[in-house]
From TrEMBL:
Belongs to the type-I restriction system S methylase family. It comes from Ligilactobacillus salitolerans. Signal peptide: none annotated. GO terms for biological process: DNA restriction-modification system. Keywords: DNA-binding, Restriction system. This is Type I restriction-modification system specificity subunit S. Residues 4-175 form the Type I restriction modification DNA specificity domain. InterPro entries: Restrct_endonuc_typeI_TRD (IPR000055), Restrct_endonuc_typeI_TRD_sf (IPR044946), Type-I_RS_S_subunit (IPR052021). GO terms for molecular function: DNA binding.
Length: 382
């Protein structure tokens, strides 16, 4: 059978019916566990089921709400046990392939394509800022479906890119843990404290006027909050009138609702009111600053137990009691952690490039413009 034009609803089930009893403890995957343009799901928790979509291994999760969909939050479920049913946000659309005609991972790549995403975005309805994709638009989405053997060739090729991205993420996680162990060792030996303002300059963001925003890449990319740098820098808007701006080497972090996610930036970004920045006063303190900021966020989260909405002020950051390390300790940690952190940043940069490469090739692969008939033989013999 050759390639044919199909509607998604004819070859996949949207939001399949699965059984979970109310209050049954099951694995939960929240929206925050999905990283933009990343196949792998980052995290989960075990909670009592009280509602939400249900899914199993082999399903694809697509964010249906703005701005998560525009930011590329689509992931493939493969972290569950056999026959395990998990649940997640009501803001997910679950896609399940008819395996007789559609490969499960090929469906994932269809759902990550810009063509699918644009059709979904244009179907959104609702009030500004809370618009949602309509299931009918997803069901009626049309695409070219090649034979299963061709689908598997495309999946094999794209999986090689995603596997490298996942490996880099694991390496970075391990490197960060090694740095954390050394930081904690120095911290335990340090009894003195100093205000964070003696270690870094702290600047809170300021949102530009709404009429200066655009999504066309004009002006300065805007980081309005943690959602714009979770799992990498993914600004959803640009502004022609930035108010507060980062410098290369700064750390950005979330200060409203989602706090933390300390992230090093290497370009100039505007920061909105949901974002702050920290700039080390000495380059030798740069690596220490990262872990001090992470500890600060843990402290603020514990201190605000019971608060529905977190909002941390600059004064609270500036007066946070950080370890007052000696110059010798600062030098030792810098010499130890700097090469490891630099490797982390290089891996992050490579992942950005691999993601761009995948997004460049994806539409041509889905359209059948690239012949992969011998790809497995070539790659296995490389």
């Amino acid at each position: 059978m050759g390639t044919k034009l199909v509607k998604l609803g004819d070859v996949a089930v949207i939001n399949p019916r699965l059984r979970l009893e109310k209050n049954e403890v099951a694995r939960k995957i929240p929206m925050e566990a999905l990283t933009p343009f990343q196949k792998k799901i980052d995290s989960y928790s075990f909670e009592k089921y009280s509602g939400g979509v249900k899914f199993q291994n082999g399903d694809t999760l697509v964010a249906r709400i703005t701005p998560s969909l525009e930011n590329g939050k689509t992931s493939y479920v493969d972290i569950l046990e056999s026959n395990e049913v998990a649940f997640g946000s009501t803001e997910f659309i679950v896609l399940r392939a008819d395996k007789n005609v559609l490969d499960e991972e090929y469906l994932y790549y269809i759902a990550t394509s810009d063509d699918f995403r644009q059709v979904a975005i244009q179907s959104m309805t609702g009030t500004s800022g809370r618009q949602r994709v309509q299931n009918e638009a997803v069901s009626s989405y049309e695409f070219k479906l090649p034979p299963l053997d061709v689908q598997k060739q495309v999946v094999f090729f794209l999986n090689s890119i995603d596997a490298k991205i996942a490996l880099n993420l694991q390496i970075n996680d391990n490197l960060l843990k090694v740095c954390r162990l050394q930081f904690d060792k120095f911290k335990q030996a340090c009894s003195a404290t100093t205000e964070l303002s003696n270690i870094a300059t702290l600047i809170m963001g300021q949102s530009p006027k709404g009429d200066t925003y655009n999504q066309n890449g004009e002006g300065t990319p805007l980081l309005n909050g943690a959602a714009d740098f979770r799992g990498g820098i993914n600004p959803s808007k640009y502004t022609s009138d930035p108010k507060k701006v980062t410098e290369p080497g700064d750390y950005v972090f979330g200060v409203r609702a989602t706090i933390g996610l300390t992230t090093k930036v290497f370009n100039r970004y505007a920061i909105g009111r949901g974002t702050g920045l920290a700039r080390a006063l000495s380059y030798k303190s740069d690596e220490l600053l990262y872990f001090i900021m992470e500890d600060a966020f843990s402290y603020f989260a514990r201190a605000s137990t019971g608060s529905v909405y977190l909002n941390i002020s600059r004064r609270e950051f500036e007066t946070y009691a950080a370890p007052d390390f000696s110059n010798i300790t600062i030098k030792k940690f810098h010499e130890f952690a700097s090469p490891l952190m630099q490797q982390i940043y290089q891996n992050q940069k490579q992942n950005e490039e691999l993601t761009q490469l995948r997004e460049l090739l994806l539409p041509r692969l889905l359209a059948g413009d690239i012949d992969l008939s011998n790809i497995e033989t070539v790659m296995n013999n490389a």
